[in-house]
């Protein structure tokens, strides 16, 4: 039976580092069959997929394509004599402004798609409040900054703790997310904080999952950590990048309903005589935005909602209960203002 290691992030847990510098390296050296994803940038700063062979897996689990014969197409991408690895943290994220399936439905779809293969899941978790904050910062420029009621993390956190409806970002509920995934797949959990506090152990666990050398993993984790936000007192900075790429996508979507006009637009855009590609890829970075973390009382409320219960059987997933306590994962009593 063909084997798949499904790496689901979580987002903001060194996923980009693993994709770019470990999974792709092992693939290039012939040690694993890596199906992506890896995003890179050309000389004009335009993002492109360096490796996204397994794109069909995410599209199908999100319900964006008919599942039909998808399992057969996935089978054609896999090899028998190597570990097949697919990594895409986006599966776990709710993208504001887009059509999103519930996380439970996406995981169920993954199970259906991959039922003919031997699948194990590798998932890195992060201290719940830090995870919520980092995910908010990532989505701020594209979405939250446009909504006055949610344009700071403090506002978002108050909305979160006072919301009577389900929170869209289901993956922030750490214990529920682990249980959901493990209901369908053999699941190994890693702890993000180990990268800083116990990197050799973290590297060893990744190496075991990939059946590779732990020293290689350790070197990559320590040397190549990407997407680190500049910090400040009690928060981090982020920059909004403005380009005309959104306008290009909008024109493409509108003209797609008119084949002749769409064809003319594509020809003009791709023409070397017109600088349209350079213009749409030109980026301007605005002044950095400072995102302040939640105060202790608000953080306590967030953790009480999203943290892991003291009775959680961490050892079932290869995680130390003591580390979860030390790294402040455990949901406790809410701190009240005096």
From TrEMBL:
InterPro entries linked to this entry: P-loop_NTPase
SUPFAM superfamilies to which the protein is assigned, alphabetical: P-loop containing nucleoside triphosphate hydrolases
UniProt name for this protein: Sulfotransferase domain-containing protein
Species annotation: Methylophaga nitratireducenticrescens
Lineage: Bacteria, Pseudomonadati, Pseudomonadota, Gammaproteobacteria, Thiotrichales
């Amino acid at each position: 039976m063909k084997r798949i290691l499904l790496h689901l992030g979580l987002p903001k847990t060194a996923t980009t580092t693993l994709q770019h510098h470990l999974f792709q390296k092992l693939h290039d050296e012939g040690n694993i069959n890596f199906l992506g994803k890896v995003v890179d940038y050309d000389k004009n700063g335009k993002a492109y997929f360096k490796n996204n062979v397994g794109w069909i897996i995410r599209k199908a689990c999100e319900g964006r394509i008919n599942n039909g014969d998808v399992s057969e197409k996935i089978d054609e991408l896999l090899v028998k004599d190597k570990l097949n690895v697919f990594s895409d943290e986006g599966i776990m994220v709710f993208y504001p402004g887009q059509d999103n399936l519930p996380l439970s439905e996406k995981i169920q779809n993954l199970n259906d798609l991959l039922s003919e293969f031997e699948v194990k899941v590798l998932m890195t978790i992060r201290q719940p409040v830090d995870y919520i904050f980092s995910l908010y910062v990532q989505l701020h420029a594209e979405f939250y900054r446009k909504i006055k009621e949610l344009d700071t993390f403090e506002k978002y956190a108050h909305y979160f703790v006072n919301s009577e409806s389900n929170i869209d970002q289901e993956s922030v509920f750490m214990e529920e997310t682990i249980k959901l995934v493990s209901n369908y797949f053999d699941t190994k959990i890693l702890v993000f904080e180990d990268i800083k506090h116990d990197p050799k152990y973290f590297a060893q666990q990744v190496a075991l999952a990939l059946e590779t050398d732990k020293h290689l993993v350790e070197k990559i984790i320590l040397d190549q950590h990407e997407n680190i936000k500049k910090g400040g007192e009690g928060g981090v900075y982020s920059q909004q990048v403005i380009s005309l790429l959104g306008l290009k996508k909008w024109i493409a979507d509108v003209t797609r309903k008119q084949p002749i006009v769409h064809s003319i637009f594509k020809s003009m855009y791709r023409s070397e005589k017109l600088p349209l590609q350079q213009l749409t890829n030109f980026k301007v970075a605005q002044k950095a935005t400072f995102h302040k973390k939640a105060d202790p009382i608000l953080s306590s409320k967030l953790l009480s909602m999203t943290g892991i219960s003291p009775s959680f059987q961490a050892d079932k997933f290869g995680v130390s209960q003591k580390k979860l306590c030390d790294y402040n994962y455990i949901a406790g009593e809410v701190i009240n203002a005096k």
